[in-house]
Write a structure and sequence with these properties.
This protein is α/β, with parallel strands linked by helices and 702 residues long. Helix content is 38%, strand content 19%. It has a nine-stranded mixed β-sheet. Strands 19-24-23-20-22-21 form a six-stranded parallel β-sheet, with helices on both faces. The chain has a five-stranded mixed β-barrel with strand order 2-4-5-7-6. The relative contact order is 0.09. Bound molecules: adenosine-5'-diphosphate (ADP) and magnesium ion.
Amino acid sequence: MNFSTSVLEISGVGPANKKKLEKLKIKTVGDLLFYFPRRYENFSQKSSVASIYNKGKYTIEGKVIKTNTDVTIGRRIAIFEIIIKDETGEIKAVWFNQPYLKEKIKEGDEIVLSGAVNFSKDGLQFSNPFFRKLNSDEDAFDIISIYSEQGAVTSSFLRSVIKKALSGINIQNKETLPVEVVKKNNLLSLSKALNEVHFPSSTNSLKKAKRRFSFERIFLLQLFILEQKIAISKKKGVPVPVDIEKVKDLVDGLPFTLTDAQKKASWQILKDIEKNTPMNRLLEGDVGSGKTIVATIASLAVIKAGYQVALMAPTEVLSRQHFDEIAKLLWRFKIDIGLLTGKKDKIRSKRLKGDTFEVSREKLQEKVEEGKVDLLVGTHTLIQDKVKFKNLALVIVDEQQRFGVEQRAKLCLKKDSFIPHLLSMTATPIPRTLALTLYGDLDLSVIDEMPEERKPIITELVSPKKREDAYLKIKEEIKKGRQCFFICPRIEDPDKKPADGKKSPWANLKSVEKEKERLATEVFPEFKVEGLHGKMKNSEKEKVMKDFRDKKIDLLVSTSVIEVGVDVKNASIMVIEGAEMFGLSQLHQFRGRVGRSDIQSYCFLFTSSWNEKIKQRLKALLTSKNGFELAEKDLEIRGPGDFIGKKQWGYDDFTMKALKDPVLVESARETAKDILEEDPGLKKNSLLRKRVDLLKRKIHLE
Ligand code: ADP
Ligand code: MG
């Protein structure tokens, strides 16, 4: 038996069980052994019954002295009760709707119970605790693995199959990592780690097992990223001779002076594009720090040297905004800018300043191919739409996850001759650990200061009682001619209740549609209120955004579609409903939509539930004005999910948790570097080669 053997070979697994396992996408022994527990129930820290005098989580060990199964509440819910006794006292445990337990737990059994203790009318009792029998073989561990279950596939079933698989397979000397990597990093062997991850012998060895698998995944990821980096450094880029006078001309004509950070970033970029190796740079800067102008400077330099630029934004609204903004900045340089959107496409002509023509998609594409469009702005469809550039030298990507070498090459008419320089921009400050993992192949420019004129935004966490006061303040500001954003966590109210009849955690959350109605009729009848969300047609969205910019709308109720990039200087109030549903970084992004001029701006945070924990977390926004600080906090509290689309990267919980550990990430990276130095191309490590290629395919399939 080995990893690729069918599960049918495991003793006790027949066609029926095979079918069950297939529900979890488990087909082979390998699939099964690498189906890791979702969590663990730890029975190792025990309390005595007498020491339980308050509600909380406890584990106790004792003898069952009484069981009772007849009780039901309103004839609907079956209740199973037991009394358990140790040397210090007795306590009751209750299970709801688990009638089969009466077959499992009998009077006289020695058991361990673990779970929540609460007050009931009869005093303190365990409700729905986990249990294990002391003399049963299957559960002879203090730490029991709990898997993601599905239908009939229970954790206890999985444990028994995995146990059989582990004893049937010979993995003593099997390794998926090079032996010296295992040794050097003090990792558990594969065999030991697999045993420990499913059947931990102690908290400590479980930790070691998890560390081994976390290391392994991050190590592979680092190999992939470093190989990308090496591959790019071997490609030819276009050396762009920068006409510094033109750049000065642009900068001198701006209505503001660049911050030092903007100057430095621009300089780094201009230096990069002069080289004949392709630039690979990430421009990180808080919302409103002024990344667009930096990108525009680079674009101008490239265009004036006779090359083309492609700019990709995550949404159409943002593409249009970039198009308008850059066209404004560059019109006097006689540049052709094209905008590729859903249906009608626009091209701004150099001959008629400020005029915009609509041309067909085909025509625009043709012009791009002929080199008659200097800068093409669009969404990700730029690459999907088979747009080809005549002589593309720079790709700018705003707020997108990854943009690989292959994707860059795809945009060029003549493939393989060179690949364009890449400038990635993001307003999500990424903690260093994550940046290394996600963007370890990019050089970094950081804009870490705000334009001077900006006043700090006054942020308030509004308790439910103070809601009316906040509305008054908002009215006052709108009367002064200001505009206001209202962010709601969802578009519409769900029409159905969740199937299980429970209250959905989203039940109290405001929706754009309802809230828009309410604000327009009840709260702000004297003002113009409009809604904006992702399900609207593009033309509708654009109209609303345009009306908002033209001050025809006072209050814009929106989902998170306005999260990134939207720039309306006169908007000075940001209200966020259901703030507890968002990450701190994301809230910081929302807040960045206001305070973009010298007007005093405000940010009001409303919540749909209110407790100490929520208060504490959101308070970070009042004290910390810096996105990096908040990002670190997010990573600590919420994990890396806010920074990387979990699905997009196909990371499992293991990897996600591992990403919180900077030491582990750093050592995986160092190890990957060493291996690649010693064995470029991984020719001597065929297994690693295979696994990195697999990962590559997975990441590129996104
Ligand atoms: P982001 O980094 O979020 O993309 P933008 O590039 O949209 O920020 O810039 C935000 C606003 O700040 C824009 O209206 C821009 O014109 C303005 N801006 C950029 N740089 C400066 C500066 N140095 N001084 C004053 N205003 C600036
Ligand atoms: Mg921007």
